[in-house]
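Friendly challenge for the regulars: who can give me the structure tokens for this chain first? No prize, just bragging rights.
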Amino acid sequence: MHGKQSKKMEQAESNLVHYLMEDRTHIGDFLQRLEKSEFSKEELRAVVNSRLQEQIPCLVYSDYTPLGYAIFQNDPQTVDQLLKYGACAQLAPCKPKDKNVCILSPLHLALKHLCQPSLVDILLQNGASTKNVQSRDVSCLLGFIAKCPSKETAEALLADMSCLNRVDNDKRTLLHLAAMNGKCAVVNSVLISHQVDINQFDATGKTALLYAAERNSPDVIQLLLNSGASVHLTDAWDRTALHFAVRRASVTTVERLLSAGASVSAHDRKGLTPLTYAYSTESILHSRKPRANADKLIRCLAGSTKQTLDKRDFIHVAFHMTRICETDSVVIKLLENNKGLLSQRNNNGQMLIHVAAEFRKHAIVKWLVEKGGLHSDVTDAIGWQPLHYAAKGGNKETLFYLLQQHGAKVNSATPGGWTPVWILCRNGWKDIACDVVCHGCDIKLTMTVSTLRQADSHFSLPLSLFDPEAQRVHPVAYARTGSRRITLVQFATECRFGRLARLIVDLQGTSPLQNRLIQAAAWTGKHKSPKNGAAAKTILAN
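First reply, four minutes later:
Bragging rights claimed.
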């Protein structure tokens, strides 16, 4: 009789394994049939709590109970059915193969594998408790609550905890973890309990506010600020919450921290301030719309900055703002507060007036000259004046402002021999070049071909003068042309600037226009380029 009972139990366990692995949707019907058969409640309970170590192999665990396997598969329906028919919610659900890992209960297994909140709710409703997890693996419990997507499940676990000031292996409280994951409800529950110091540091020297700023959680930040979190505390690298917010290019977070009194000039261990972070690509990399966010971010920080910046911040911030800000008044406001730093130079030896001239910020150039006390002919490290940078950027307004009102010389040349009109031609600003020619520049100045070749690596206009085919076919002749000098009309013809070439020829008042242009284009015949004469005639047609 005993042997028959044993075989009946083994068959029931084998069938249960089949339903667990292949047909979990009908496991409830199977357990209901067992209950209605000759099985007693004790026998049915023994079946659903049996060990399945040989029949269900796993690389991580062994010695499963049916409930443990269902939890491992993250199946709330199967868990509910097994508990309904007698599965124990406190029995160790499996045996880890790693001796350093300890699975204390089905609830512990569910928390460790971040199962669905509904599965955790079912375990809690059937008598599962967090007491043993709190005493032996509180990190697992705190981590699950901080990541739980269900507010109700998180509150149920919190209600089962005896103390909320427990810390995990990294000395982080539930407040740290909830702030890190942006869980406002959990943060609020912990704050209401008054069991955790809102400014407590973890092992890395961070507070909950620093984590919220680092992970860009504006709502959590506002909640912490309203509860008295300090905006001046720093981590192990002396970074404040504002440093982290700027690094994430989060304008909303920055505004909230600034309204709470965060300092724009706080230095981290490397001596960098939030303003320095704002100009760097480090903050822009974390943003989906880098250019727009960087502009808004710097405007926000600059608007709150009334104190004088240090040298490094001014060089980085003011130069970057001049390049990207659409509104010049924001930059001018910053300059007014830092007049003693206007003569600072960046790594390229440029002053702010050079950058403003190149990037068409005429209002900034005008302010620097008239109110900032900078000379209009100041040179950078390579001898370029603002006039040359205005020509390079096609900044007509600044160009003629310097020529007409501040006595800049239209024929002033860089150490390399580049005058404004040559720079305009080389950068493709042919209409502005025509205006400069009419202003009275020297159209008889020449440039060597070698100088133009060197400039070709910095500019984009292709010239037949530098034809690679001619260099391959006649390398000696191509090399000898380097010392030859080319006139402005020849250069304009070569660049296909017909209007400029005709204007120069008219001003020279020499031979007929057609012959002059053909002669200019035919000069490159030494490079065996048969298209030059045709190119000149095309220019005439235009």
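The beta strands are 61-62, 95-96, 446-448, 485-487. The CA atoms of residues 235 and 334 lie 29 Å apart. Your move, everyone else.
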